[in-house]
Request: fold
Amino acid sequence: MVYMSCRHRVYPNQKQESLFKQYLGHSRFIHNNIIGEIEYNRHIANLFHFRAPYVNLKYMESIFNYLREWYPFINDLDINTMQACYKPVLQAYDNFFKRGFGHPKFKKRYKSSQSVKINNINKRIRVEKGKLYWKPLGWINLKGYRSEITGKIMHIKLQLKNSQWFIIVVYDSPLPEPFPKTGKEVGIDLGVKTLATLSNRKAKATLKLNEIEAKIKKTQKDLKRKEHGSEHYKKTLKTLHNHINKRNNIKREYYHKISKDIVKEYDTIKMENLNLKEMILDRDYSKGLYRASLGMLKNMIKYKCELYGKTFIEVPQYYPSSQYCHICGYRNTELTIEEREWQCPQCGAILDRDLNAAINILNYGK
Ligand SMILES: [Zn+2]
Reply:
């Protein structure tokens, strides 16, 4: 069994939308107040030199119950859902104390993406004929539903992203039929110029999004000229969100198609470990973001391998796949990122940077 998810655009009516907003608002309220309470207690403990309470489930529950007493409006909404809001906080503190992650953060009201998780306790959520039912909400249409949900619904997520509403349904599903074996293996190098270069010289082209990118840039410029919060501002912001959503959808669809094609064709797929943090911090910001979206493509290939019975191998990050000549093994430590092609001083071969890297990735560990 495996958890699958599908994301559907929804168009809530006025009553449903105000309910959605309440859920988002309340979950943010609980999240922030629990962090606030924990931090206050840690501060006081520090000040008077005693030990702060240990952050565990029991402590979270006690804060939650106290919040319910002081802010009774919490009880107006589904209490199981409200209760589930502190689980991520607990996880964040666990990561902070034990794994050296960053400090748990407050949720901001005007973030472009917000969501709240609703657990399907006692099968109270169900999907029938492309419609979802949950008692507080009633029935709501799932746009683009194509009878994907075959197993038990585990939870749903209400999501508000760039002013559009979505419902993500997570369900337990048996593994799909594996793809037939082909006996082929491949190394893949992901890049900005060519999206995916395969070790057998095949390549997947980078998606051309010039038109929509230009629209996004223009709308962003327009937005800067509008008075913040005015009607014109809101209208332009909505247009901007529409463009961004459109671009993301085109990209996601393209990546899904490419990843599926690759996983179908090869039994073993080798790829490099991409350092996402480094990519986002790229000096050329837009390029950095683009490279970060390559991480999305890699993840799609990885999970499809698991889903369809193929093997995915990750080559370590420190392995300089583009520096070695794949023919004689000479290492060119002076290769710069701008050099698309180089000649090996040892064997004289002329090497295409991406293809050479893809072949080295395939040969790694052999
Ligand atoms: Zn060589």
Notes: The longest strand covers residues 164-173. The chain has a mean pLDDT of 88. The longest helix spans residues 231-265. The chain is about 45% helix and 20% strand.
